[in-house]
Design brief:
Elements lengths: L2 H5 L3 H12 L2 H17 L10 H14 L3 H4 L11 H7 L3 H11 L5 H8 L3 H19 L2 E5 L3 H13 L3 E6 L2 H10 L4 E4 L9 H9 L6 E5 L16 E3 L4 H14 L17
Parallel strand pairs: 1-2, 1-3, 3-4, 4-5
C-alpha cells in the first residue's frame, strides 16, 4: 500500500494535534503541509515497521522539533485571538506539551508515545508528570476523594497533592460525600462507586451535581456498572487496580480541558465531567 493511502485516514487527527501543539490553525496546517512535502521528497523517513499513525506523528515531530524556536519558546501565533486552552497549552514546556497532547488528546499509549517522540518509556512518564505539575500551576484546585478503602484513599491523596492540588477531605459514604461538598466545594471529585456502608458513590455524585457543577472522575473496580451503552456514560473512568500515571494524566486532562458530559442517571438538564 502506498504511503499516501496509509496516512490519509489519519491526516484530520494530525491537523488537530498540530493546531493544539502550535497554537493556531494556520501554523498547524503549515507544519502538516511541510511533513507531507518531506515525505514526498524522502519516503524512507516514513517507517514501514510501525503503525501508520505512529509513524506519521513521528515524522511530524521530527519536522516540528527541527525548528529551534519550538524547543525554546512558545510557537508564534498567526495573529488570531486565543482560547483559554490555547494559552494554557502554550504555557506547558514543549516536550511535556507533546507528551500530554499525544496521550490526553490523541489517545496514544505510553509505548506509542515513546516511539513517536523517540524517547525511552521512562521519559514519557516523566514528561506527562511534568505536564501535570505545570497544568496544576495554572488550574490548582481542591479535590474531594470519595473512597472507602483507606490505603487507596491515601494513595490518591498523595498523588493529588504531588500534582500540586489540595485535598479537602476523604468521604467513605454517600452522606459523608454530600456533607463534605456542602462544607467546602471542591474543584474536582474522584469517586469510587461502591462505598463502605453499601451506599453508592454514583448516587452521591448525582446528588452533588444537582447543586454544584464540577468535574468528576470515577475510579472503580466495577466499570461495567457505568459502561452499559444504554445511557450517557462518564467521560473519565479509571478501572482498579489503576496505574498512578494514568490517574495523574486523567486528572490533568479533566481540569485542563473541562470536558463536560452527563452522569448516568442524572437529569438531562444537569451536566458534569465524569
Amino acid at each position: 500500500m502506498a504511503i499516501a493511502e496509509k496516512i490519509a485516514p489519519h491526516l484530520p487527527y494530525l491537523r488537530r494535534f498540530a493546531r493544539a501543539l502550535c497554537g493556531s490553525q494556520e501554523s498547524g496546517d503549515a507544519y502538516v503541509v511541510a511533513v507531507l512535502e518531506s515525505l514526498v521528497e524522502d519516503p524512507s523517513s516514513f517507517s514501514q515497521d510501525e503503525e501508520p499513525r505512529v509513524s506519521l506523528y513521528a515524522c511530524f515531530l521530527k519536522v516540528w522539533n527541527s525548528v529551534r524556536i519550538n524547543q525554546t519558546a512558545t510557537t508564534p501565533l498567526a495573529g488570531r485571538p486565543q482560547s483559554t486552552v490555547d494559552r494554557s497549552i502554550e504555557a506547558i514546556t514543549p516536550a511535556a506539551r507533546q507528551a500530554f497532547l499525544l496521550t490526553s488528546v490523541e489517545g496514544f499509549t505510553s509505548a506509542q508515545v515513546a516511539q513517536i517522540m523517540d524517547v525511552p518509556m521512562e521519559r514519557v512518564s516523566e514528561l506527562v508528570n511534568q505536564a501535570g505539575k505545570e497544568i496544576a500551576e495554572q488550574v490548582a484546585t481542591d479535590v474531594l476523594i470519595i473512597e472507602d478503602e483507606p490505603l487507596i484513599a491515601m494513595d490518591l491523596e498523595s498523588l493529588v497533592q504531588g500534582l500540586g492540588h489540595s485535598v479537602t477531605g476523604v468521604a467513605r459514604t454517600h452522606r459523608e460525600a454530600v456533607a463534605a461538598v456542602r462544607a467546602k466545594r471542591p474543584g474536582l471529585v474522584l469517586a469510587d462507586i461502591q462505598l463502605a456502608d453499601g451506599s453508592s458513590g454514583l448516587d452521591a455524585v448525582n446528588e452533588i451535581l444537582l447543586s454544584f457543577d464540577m468535574p468528576v472522575i470515577f475510579i472503580t473496580a466495577f466499570p461495567e456498572r457505568l459502561l452499559t451503552g444504554e445511557r450517557p456514560e462518564p467521560t473519565f473512568l479509571i478501572t482498579k487496580p489503576f496505574e498512578t500515571n494514568t490517574v495523574r494524566a486523567i486528572i490533568s486532562q479533566a481540569l485542563f480541558f473541562g470536558t463536560s458530559a452527563r452522569v448516568p442517571g442524572q437529569d438531562a438538564q444537569k451536566n458534569a465531567v465524569a
